[in-house]
């Protein structure tokens, strides 16, 4: 081998290699790609577009697209990091990768990059439907800020996904992701706007990470102000999910490598 072949790779290069590998791995399973891109778009097409009072009002249509975009991000994170990590752990190649000198950081960072890419891709058909079939509108500045907000919104949910993926087996992780995702999405106002909730449910939902993420995204996309504690609530859940993810990773490492 040449000296170039033996030269150590930088952490950034290793991160991008892992991200590319994981992206190609996902693309090779078409149903995973379809599921990631299709469900939020179908929800937009069947529950927003047919309602003239929603689809024909620019502000309401934009808010509806924003809340479904939030669901797309959260769904992608929980399935990619929850079910995806659990599936990887079941493969013989995973223990080998975790023994390599580069350590876990480049692989984990690559998974995060891959997850953010799929979050952004999940928004493409949703935005297309909103543009073609509704009166939703957004300025270029707000669109750019909204896209920049994607990693911020994704962070707590990818950490929750990691906690689930490292704590549970493949089959259990899929079931838990589904059991966590849909109640949180409904209670957080991602399917129905919180304005139609009873007072007690509206108050309860403000303590949830999904509601905080939804209101922040709508605030940035439309200018409708989020409730005052939205950002602190999201930060608090991020810290909690980070602690759970670290604990789950260390327990998994202790069980499998001691």
UniProtKB/TrEMBL annotation:
One GO process term, biological-process aspect: response to antibiotic
Locations listed in the record: Membrane
Stretches that traverse the bilayer: 29-48, 60-87, 108-131, 143-165, 172-192, 224-249
GO MF entries: ABC-type transporter activity
Domain ABC-2 type transporter transmembrane: residue ranges: 20-217
Pfam families: ABC2_membrane
Main location as per UniProt: membrane
Topology of this chain in the membrane: Multi-pass membrane protein
The keyword Transmembrane appears for this protein: yes
Keyword set, alphabetical order: Antibiotic resistance, Membrane, Transmembrane, Transmembrane helix
Cellular component terms per the entry's GO annotation: ATP-binding cassette (ABC) transporter complex
PANTHER family: NODULATION PROTEIN J (PTHR43229)
Name by which UniProt lists this protein: ABC transporter
Organism encoding this protein: Cellulomonas cellasea DSM 20118
